[in-house]
Structures are given as C-alpha cells and as structure tokens.
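Question: what's this shape?

___
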Amino acid sequence: MRDSGQVLLVMVKQNEFYTFPLLEFYMMINLYGEEVQMGLDLGFQNVEIEGNALTIVKMLHTDRQDRYEISAYIMDSRSLSENYQRCIFRHAPR
C-alpha cells in the first residue's frame, strides 16, 4: 500500500497449495479487502493498492456486476475503498 509514493504497508500471504483453483482466487480477493480495511484502520487517506492478480484488479476497476459469487467480495472492496479520498488499485506483475 502506498501513500504519496512511499510504501507504507506490505502484506504478504504465504504461498499455500490449494487443491481448488477457485479457492485460491477467493483468497486473493479477500486479501484485497483486508488491505483496504487495514489502510482505513490506520487512517490513510490516499492509497494505491497493488497486487499481482490482474483479473481481480480489472474486476475492481469495472462497475459491471456479474453473476459470480465473487462479486460480493469485489463489491465489498469497492465500497470500502470509497471511504478514502483517493484509492487506486494497480496490477504489479510478479
């Protein structure tokens, strides 16, 4: 998480083996929500949240609501991000 160009918070989840790829996808989406909430808890106002899941970043940027169960997680992260003055989701390739 960045504020004014400086890295303020780094969250790393240990790479675990999931037998179901969809479960790993849910875990990644949940991580974005955790980052958004943690920044708010710390009182940040302007943040950039970076992650390496391009699909999730694209979903966070679109207003389109799809029929998948993960939409609820995306909508939660988006609605939490509205509490910032500025919140940008960026893709950071590995």
Observations:
- The mean pLDDT is 79.
- The radius of gyration is 13 Å.
